[in-house]
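Lecture notes, unit on protein representations.

Consider one protein chain, 117 amino acids long.
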Amino acid sequence: QVQLVESGGGLVQAGGSLRLSCAASGPTFSKSTMAWFRQAPGKEREFVARINSSGSSRWYVDAVKGRFTIFRDNTKSTLYLQMNSLKPEDTALYYCARRGDSDYTDWGQGTQVTVSS
């Protein structure tokens, strides 16, 4: 099992930027597909972005394409999410997750992102 700890959330004005980090423990990080999810109040958790183990392939939900960038540093066992041009609708609790054989099996505790208008 991998432990994941997110950081970097906070309060930012619309149009601003934040960089989220997800520090992983354990030897499987560099071999795993990783992702960011988010959950806004009163809404279901939704997929935001995914990156394969080497970092060569990335996928994004349409709502964040062109504004968010997912990347990773396998030497530091850390996943990142660079968020630019933030909008109030990006306000949510952001989670990182590790994909196991068939589903996301390890989750962090989340970091809150709040975007004011």
